[in-house]
Design brief:
Layout (H helix, E strand, L loop, with lengths): L8 E5 L4 H12 L3 E5 L14 H15 L4 E4 L16 H25 L5 E6 L12 H21 L4 E8 L5 H5 L2 H10 L8 H11 L11 E4 L11
Parallel strand pairs: 1-2, 1-3, 3-4, 4-5, 5-6
Length: about 240
């Protein structure tokens, strides 16, 4: 396959591990220059995604080093490890998760859009099946991922006329640290409730990102692409 632009410059947050590192590697293999942003990365790439100045410093460095930025993948995200119910969730924890999962996505998009060239660019936001189909004990996580989907739709409405294609991906239950932290019982129930009965592989999510950046894909915009083994539309509760 060929990417929509030759040797595009891609910025990905949360790119040092899990889904993010798989996406970064797959795009590098297709010829993209991938800039990985995550905690532990050297300055200015280890910035706090809630910090607009950190975003601006990072993006300006990318443009200084590579001449442009073509793609932003907002992949950084967290979920609370405590009581994630309306009554039990701590107010500070609500704000922490929402700010990382949603506010940071808005800030990142605004900084990237302001720096895209006349040819536009592409943005992919990592939502979740939890933003489409909720399950017990995931209050702020589900709310935040639903907000990412709405934010993606709104941004696509506002900026598609500039040649900027903005979409989201909605992965299902993955075999990674984040989901394990919420308990293996929940993970097993979600997988069992999916249409295929399988966990979603990182490579499958990366393949969906490749599709959204494919040169032949010119009319997918404002969409949320499920990669969830059919969990969003399966019967039964997790």
């Amino acid at each position: 396959m060929a990417l929509f632009r030759e040797n595009p410059v891609v910025v990905i947050t949360g790119g040092a591990g899990g889904i993010g590192s798989t996406i970064a590697r797959s795009l590098q293999e297709l010829g993209a220059t991938v800039v990985v942003c995550d905690f532990g990365q050297p300055d200015p790439y280890g910035f706090d995604v809630r910090d607009r100045l950190g975003w601006e410093k990072m993006m300006d460095q990318v443009i200084s080093d590579h001449g442009r930025v073509d793609v932003l993948i907002n992949n950084a995200g967290v979920m609370t490890q405590g009581d994630d119910t309306v009554v039990g969730l701590d107010d500070d924890e609500w704000h922490r998760v929402f700010d990382i999962n949603v506010t940071a996505v808005r800030i990142g998009m605004s900084v990237a859009i302001a720096r895209f060239g006349e040819e536009g660019g592409r943005i992919i936001n990592t939502a979740s099946v939890s933003g489409v189909r909720h399950f017990p004990g995931a209050c702020i996580y589900s709310v935040s991922k639903t907000a990412v989907i709405a934010l993606t739709n709104q941004a696509a409405l506002d900026y598609s006329h500039r040649g900027i294609k903005i979409n989201a991906i909605a992965p299902g239950m993955m075999e990674n640290v984040m989901h394990h932290g919420k308990g293996s019982d929940l993970r097993d129930k979600v997988i069992a409730s999916s249409l295929t009965g399988d966990a979603v592989k990182d490579d499958e999510v990366a393949l969906t990102v490749e599709y959204l950046l494919d040169a032949r894909n010119s009319n997918v915009v404002g969409a949320t692409m499920p990669v969830d083994a059919g969990f969003a539309y399966a019967k039964g509760n997790a």
